[in-house]
Every structure is written in structure tokens, then in C-alpha cells.
Write a structure and sequence with these properties.
The chain is an all-beta fold. It has helices at 5-14, 464-467, and strands spanning 19-22, 25-28, 41-44, 54-58, 64-69, 79-84, 87-93, 103-108, 111-118, 124-130, 136-141, 151-156, 159-165, 175-180, 183-189, 199-203, 209-214, 224-229, 232-238, 248-253, 256-262, 272-277, 280-286, 296-299, 307-311, 321-326, 329-335, 345-349, 355-360, 370-374, 380-385, 395-400, 403-409, 419-423, 429-434, 444-447. Among the domains are: 1-108; 123-222; 354-472, no CATH class. The protein has a 34-stranded antiparallel β-sheet, with no helix packed on it.
């Protein structure tokens, strides 16, 4: 209770009804109970529930200098309004109830000029500027939290007109986006700041990307163009050498690669075509001699093989050479030398790419009837031949240092050798043994180490050309 009459008079003066108009709201301060020691502070409990909703600070002239407001009546200050000479200059707010001010509106002559957004440490992360009509004119943002504004929006009549960004945090603007009817219609990106954009993006009226242009090699020319339909990639075009002729065109189906054409020799004609299924490459055709026809075909959908390459030089639909790859390493090779559609030879390679086996048709039938086996250096160590074409080996050849050292022959086709021949270092026949009764043991032996008689030339062996060495 206030007993001193002088204090009573002061209290009555302070409790005289005061109406403050702030942003269109009238704050009635007459119901506050004021301590004699705080003559310039007026508290208001509008609900008479013990919770102060407003605290006004009055200067010695009776003018409001600050007003603190608890908007949700939780006993915590949510809004602070600052005044100078009774005119509103700043409004600070705690919009999320964490007792930290995160929004600040600045005023000039009672008109809001800009709004600042603060982080939990009170650092300004964004500023919104307004014109005299209250429309936004510009927004600056610090999107990385490093204290530097890296993003700026410009507005015309309240609608976005331009966006500038520093996307690599080097302190320089590198991306410009222009707007039309509040939608982006073109974006330019210059990462290195040399004044020559590396990327341009064009948008339709819905704000969806319809085309992009790229300078991927940073030579100042936009050599790559990408087109979009329904916000999905539809086509990519490239002019790598800048001659005005496309070097590559890739078409897409529902956003996935469908077909790609390339001009590998830059003569203005496509000489490579790649086909896709469900976005995966399955076939490639190449015109290696640039005559306008595809003679080389690569398949990527064959079981067991990562790639199968067919070479059909005469375009008769019967490849002369077929190459089989696993993990991009050649593992098998087939050749059709007589254009009958049946491989005349087949070569097998190990996991290191070394030749280990070659099968060949010696021209006596339709089947491959000679097989060579090679060591790690690619030198033949032995060979097998099916002379009569019954699917069983009749002649065995043993090599030493790349030459034929001996042979074994099954003359009666019982699966067991009955003729043995020995050759010297010049592949000259020097010894013959024969099993005349076919019991597995030699019954007859002839020695030609001095000089073989007339008519006893070495037996026919795999061709020198096929084996890669001098054969018998």
C-alpha cells in the first residue's frame, strides 16, 4: 500500500489512461500498477490473471521508447517495439518461443524498410527490403552461416525478377536467374568468374526446365545442349569442334537413354550408333571405314560375356570375325573365312589375355578338326587332329621349343595310338615305330636319323600359319 500522499499523486499521474497506437493496435496502459522506483515503466495485465502482457517504457517527456509484449500470455516476452521521439523504429520478435529474438523489422518515418531474420546466436542470416508500398524489393541471404550474404533476390512490384547467388562461397556472384511472372525462365552459371558462362538453363511458363546449354570444356563455347520434356531429359546434342555440325545426338525415352549417334571422325556423318533397352546399353554399331555402312557390331546383352563384337566387312550378315569379352578382356575369338556362317577357327584366351587354345578347320570338312594348345608365352606345346571327322582325335602332335618334336597316330580309329614318329630339331623325320597288331606295344621300328629314304617325308601336321611356328 502506498502511504505517502506525494507518491499517491505520482501514481495517479502515471495511471492516467494512455492509448498508444502501434501498427494499428491500441495498447491501454492505465490499468498497470507501477512501482515508485520505476516511474518510466508501465506494466499491463489485461486479463487480471497476474500475467503481464505488455511493459511500456516512457522517457522523461512522456514519450514511449520501448514496448515489450507477451502475445501468447505465457509469461515470456515475444515482441519488443522500439521508438524514437515516439515514432516506431524497430520491432523484434521471438517467433518460435525459444526466448531468442529471431525476427527484426526496421522502420523509417513509421514505414517498414527492411526485415532481418536472425539465427539462434542473434546473427543476421537474411534481410528483406521493402518499398514505400510495403512490397518486397530485395532479399539477401547467408545460406552457409559464414557471415557472408551469398544469395540475393530482386523484386519488381512484389514479384521476383532476378536471383543472384555465390554457390562456391568465394565471395563472387556466379549464378544469375531471371524471372518472368514469378517463374524462372533463364539461369546463367559462371563458376570461374571469367565472364564466360559454363551453363545456361531455360524454363517454360510453368517453371520447368526445357533446355540447358553447357560449356563442359570451358573454352567459351556452349558445345552441349540438353532438351527436356515433362521435366525429363529428352535429347542431348553436342558439337565438340564448334563447326556447326553435331558430333553426338542422344535420344531418351521417358528419361532413359534410347539411342545415341556419334560422328567419331568429325566429318559431319554419324558413324557410331548405340542402342539401349530400359536405359541399359545392349548394342553398338560402328562404321569403322566410314563408308556409310555399319560393319562392326558390339553386343552387351549376351549371357556369360560382357561384350561380343562381330565384324562383317562385306555386309553379308555373316561376320568374318567374332570377339568375346569378359570384363573388357578378350577371352575367345572366332573366324569364318569361307563366308558359310560356320566359324573355321576359334581361339581361347585365359584371364590374363594370353592365347591358350586354337581350333581350326583344315578345309577337309565342315568341322574344326585341329586343336593347338599353348603355354604362357604363346608357344604351342601340343596339337590334336581329327583326320576322319568322326569327332575323335586321330593324330597327336608334341612340340618342343615351338617345333614339332613327335607325333602319335591312331590309324585304326580305336582311340589308341599305333604309330609313333620322332623329328629332329629341323622337324625332319628320324624315327618311326608301329604297333602292327594294335596291342599298344610297338612291333616295328625304322630309324632315319642318317637320311630318310625317298618317299618318306614327314607326315602332314597342322599348318605353319595356323600354329604360328614352323610345323612338319
Amino acid at each position: 500500500m502506498i502511504k505517502n500522499s506525494r507518491l499517491k499523486n505520482q501514481t495517479r499521474r502515471l495511471c492516467t489512461p494512455v492509448c498508444i497506437i502501434v501498427a494499428g493496435v491500441c495498447f491501454v496502459l492505465s490499468t498497470a500498477r507501477v512501482s515508485p522506483a520505476a516511474e518510466r515503466m508501465i506494466k499491463t495485465d489485461k486479463e487480471n490473471d497476474g500475467v503481464v502482457e505488455q511493459t511500456a517504457y516512457i522517457d522523461e517527456k512522456g514519450k514511449l521508447i520501448r514496448l515489450e509484449i507477451d502475445e501468447n500470455s505465457d509469461g515470456k516476452r515475444d515482441v519488443i517495439q522500439h521508438y524514437k521521439e515516439g515514432i516506431l523504429t524497430c520491432v523484434e520478435k521471438d517467433t518460435d518461443g525459444d526466448q531468442a529474438l529471431d525476427l527484426r523489422d526496421q522502420f523509417s518515418n513509421g514505414q517498414r524498410t527492411h526485415q532481418e531474420i536472425l539465427d539462434v546466436n542473434g546473427k543476421v542470416t537474411s534481410i528483406i527490403y521493402f518499398d514505400e508500398k510495403g512490397n518486397k524489393t530485395r532479399i539477401t541471404k547467408d545460406t552457409t552461416g559464414d557471415g557472408k550474404f551469398d544469395t540475393e533476390y530482386s523484386y519488381q512490384e512484389g514479384q521476383p525478377s532476378c536471383l543472384k547467388q555465390d554457390t562456391n562461397d568465394d565471395g563472387k556472384i556466379d549464378t544469375w536467374t531471371n524471372y518472368e511472372n514469378a517463374k524462372p525462365y533463364v539461369q546463367v552459371y559462371d563458376a570461374d568468374g571469367d565472364g564466360r558462362p559454363e551453363r545456361e538453363i531455360f524454363y517454360d511458363q510453368k517453371g520447368q526446365v526445357v533446355k540447358t546449354r553447357h560449356d563442359l570444356d570451358k573454352d567459351g563455347r556452349m558445345e552441349t545442349q540438353r532438351e527436356y520434356r515433362h521435366n525429363k531429359i529428352a535429347q542431348i546434342k553436342k558439337d565438340a569442334d564448334g563447326d556447326g555440325r553435331l558430333d553426338e545426338v542422344m535420344d531418351f525415352d521417358n528419361g532413359q537413354p534410347a539411342v545415341c549417334q556419334n560422328d567419331s571422325n568429325l566429318d559431319g556423318k554419324f558413324d557410331v550408333e548405340t542402342l539401349y533397352q530400359k536405359g541399359r546399353k545392349f548394342k553398338l554399331q560402328r562404321d569403322s571405314d566410314f563408308n556409310g555402312s555399319y560393319e562392326t557390331t558390339l553386343w552387351f546383352d549376351r549371357e556369360e560375356w560382357s561384350c561380343v563384337t562381330e565384324i562383317d566387312a562385306d555386309q553379308d550378315q555373316k561376320p568374318e570375325i567374332i570377339l568375346y569379352y569378359k570384363d573388357d578382356l578378350l577371352r575367345m575369338k572366332e573366324g569364318d573365312e569361307d563366308a558359310d556362317g560356320i566359324p573355321d577357327f576359334q581361339e581361347s584366351y585365359d584371364a590374363q589375355g594370353r592365347l591358350v587354345k586354337r581350333e581350326e578347320n583344315d578345309g577337309q570338312g565342315k568341322r574344326r578338326n585341329i586343336t593347338w594348345y599353348y603355354d604362357q608365352s604363346g608357344t604351342p606345346v601340343r596339337a590334336e587332329k581329327d583326320a576322319d571327322g568322326d569327332g575323335r582325335t586321330d593324330i597327336w602332335y608334341i612340340y618342343k621349343d615351338g617345333r614339332v618334336a613327335s607325333t602319335m597316330e591312331d590309324s585304326n580309329h580305336d582311340g589308341k595310338p599305333d604309330i609313333w614318329e620322332i623329328y629332329d630339331e629341323n622337324e625332319t623325320l628320324i624315327e618311326v615305330e608301329k604297333d602292327l597288331n594294335f596291342d599298344g606295344d610297338p612291333d616295328f621300328k625304322e630309324d632315319y636319323s642318317e637320311a630318310p629314304p625317298d618317299g618318306l617325308a614327314p607326315q602332314e601336321n597342322p599348318s605353319n600359319e595356323a600354329s604360328g611356328v614352323n610345323g612338319p
